[in-house]
Amino acid sequence: MEKPQMNDLSKANQELLEEISSLKKRIQELEKSDAEHKQEEKTLKENNDKFLNLASTIPGNIAYVNANTLQYEFVNDTFEKSFGIPREKIIGQHIKDVIGEANYKFAMKYIEEVRLGKSISYENTFALVSGKRWIQVNYTPVIDAKGLVTSIAVLSLDITERKKADEALKAAEETYRNIFLNAQTGLFRTAINTGLILDVNDCVARFIGYRDREELLSKPFNIAERYVDPKDRERMISLLREHGHFSNFEARFRRNDDSIMWMRFAGRIVSEKGWIEGVSEDITKEKDAEEALIQAEENFRRSLDESPLGVRIVTEEGKTVYANRAILDMHDYDSIEEYKITPTEKRYTPECFAEHQTRKEKRKRGDDLLSEYEISIVRKTGEVRHLQVLRKEIQWDGKRQFQVICQDITDRKRAEETLRRNEKDLKESQRIAHVGSWRLDVATNKVVWTEELYNMYGFDPSLPPPPYAEHMKLFTPESWDRLSKALARTRDTGIPYTLELETVRKDGSNGWMWVHGQADVDSTGKTVGFWGAAQDITERKRAEEENRLLQERLNRSEKMESLGMLAGGVAHDLNNVLGVVLGYSELLASSLDTSSPLQSRVEKIMKGTERAAEIVQDLLTLARRGVQTRSPVRINDIIMNFLKSPEYERILLCNPRMRVNADLQADILNMMGSKIHLHKTIMNLVSNASDAMPDGGCLNIKTSNQYLDRAISGYDHVHEGDYVVLSVSDTGEGISSDDIRHIFEPFYTKKVMGRSGTGLGLAVVWGTVKDHEGYIDVQSEVGKGTTFDLYFPVTREKVSDEKIPVSLSDYMGKGESVLVIDDVKGQCDLASEMLSRLNYKVASVPSGEAAVEYLKANRADILVLDMIMDPGMDGLDMYKEILELYPGQKAVIVSGFSETDRVKKAHRLGAGAYVRKPYALERLGLAVRRELDKK
Q1: pTM
Q2: Are residues 624 and 748 in the same domain?
């Protein structure tokens, strides 16, 4: 029994040993397998690292996508950056969520094929972080050991730049094609051996005579057959074979219409293709121009030789290399050799030779000189001629030379000198006569004036005249209208016109111009312009106007003189009557007791007589015989005295609604005048203004100092000088233009007779102003009022103080003898009685002749003589004869008129004071007493 157990144990041990051996072997195999696994893991890791490094460096997006779920299993850095999504957010995401719906649908067309184990590649655009890009997508299936597609390897390459390059290449090829086809230079390609045209552009086709390349290439075309000279092609081929290219090759060809053309080529041989390609241009016109140039040069040489202008060709140093016949004739030389050997200084006048030397020196220095100038030469005969020279640089026989062209202008210079003299004479004549000429071009409206016309209008002669469109400003509207109508009539009829027009100068002043114009017609008779002359007639017009005004004043003066003579005669007779009434009234009043009831009646007679005397005084003023004496006065004082007078109060009483304003210049200058007459003048003007404003209004009295630096013409002509101006204006009815010419005429009135005035008021104003050597201006507008401006000459004399009343003892006589001479008995008796009361021994005679006879037998200490006696001698003639009897005979002059020239002559002969009638005891007594007291 024991033996089988051992065997069993042995067997078991054996089996155990075998099992242990097997286990050891297995362990060894496992150890080996583990080592290999570790090695594989290591290798796998290394491969994975390499793959990741490779995936990172590959310029493209790499991704692994589960083939079934289409979820991302792996993406590289580039993929992550391209889409801008972190890798951890991409892994596990469905591709649609990353690449978008549109790209997903596009990709699915290919993914199905990849799932079947097929590699696919396609191109599409993707919206990446960098923008819209073209991407080439490569799908590669990943297959496991069982042959199943488990993943899809995706390699995406950005091909945007390649796409752009492809498009650019395509565009460049298209551009090149367009250039080739449309270039204005001929482009061609021909077979080397046969000469057949392989391709050309339209330009070559047109050169040869075809419409375009399509027409030319529609059938075989052999250019070799079109050479006019076949040897030209042989020379071209020879150049190609020797050098491989050629340029500037020129040859003649026949066009389709058999006409000859010139072509210039440049090309190269393309041996591997067996063709020649190059460019060509049609130089037919250039060749024609060259030929024409050659012909022109020949013609130029011939024209130089035969030219009437002198022509020299000179070097920079001035050496003559060519001279034509004309230049020799100008100098009177037979040949160019004679010209060359003649010293330069002998060919010029001394002054011109000095200028020649100066020009020569300047050219050496390189100074710019005028290319055109004048010289004076001396011919071989000694005659001086004047030449105009044009010098310019040219090419002569291939060298830089200078062409000198000379024209004999001697006759022209003489003609120009004559013309200058004539123009100067014409200009001077126009200046003296104030005549200018003008021209108008209808087409351009261009205007041309001579200098005098500029002066007439007041424009600067150095500037162009104003355009015709502005000429209406040079005339008054009425004159422009007349001129426009005259121009139109002359244009239509051809009949010249002559007008006198009022102009407006540039400074705004007015003038007058006489103009004559006529049409300028072309060969067809059409008016193309106007021309004519104009003369300044401003002075003549002014003289005519002044003459007219003077004539008006003369007529007015003669009329006033006639009326004045009438008024003076009436005044003289009235004075004689009034003198008697007033004188005896004064004597009667002095003889009555102050308590006598007759005293008041005599005083009323005296006042009525004085009023009548005032009317007589108006008549005398009208006759310009009323102002006997004048003295320095202040017009402001006279106005203020008038505004306090009873006359002014009566005027206001008659027109209580009239407002009166007095604007009197404080520093008013003095004037020579008669207070009585100026007072009367102011009263008449104020009364006249009041009558013009029956319903009230505004009356302005103004005084001012005025200096007139030039005369002014209005109603009256006021000369330049210093004036005291009295202005009286109203806002009344105004005076019509018809009436204003007559307002200063005596007895001319629009007032109702018997109601207001005698018609003498303004006539007296006129007479008074003229007696004061003054002037009157009147402005009036119907319905707006009237202004009277009275101009009185200024005096530098001072105004004297008021006279101190004198007593009767100051003019009483001392028993002296007085002879009274008067042709009016009443006046004579009155003067005699007054002087007798003043203690004079009085005798009287009725005429000058009687006075002379009386004095031949008697003596008189003083004469009281009437200046105007009729008939017989007047006071002056009588006084002359008496002075012959008694030189130094004393006398006083009496008259009813103002102081006349004959009175002044009597003063110069020795006569004393002048006494105006009617007589007043004090005035007559003082005049006689003062004259007797003179030594």
Answers
A1: 0.37
A2: yes
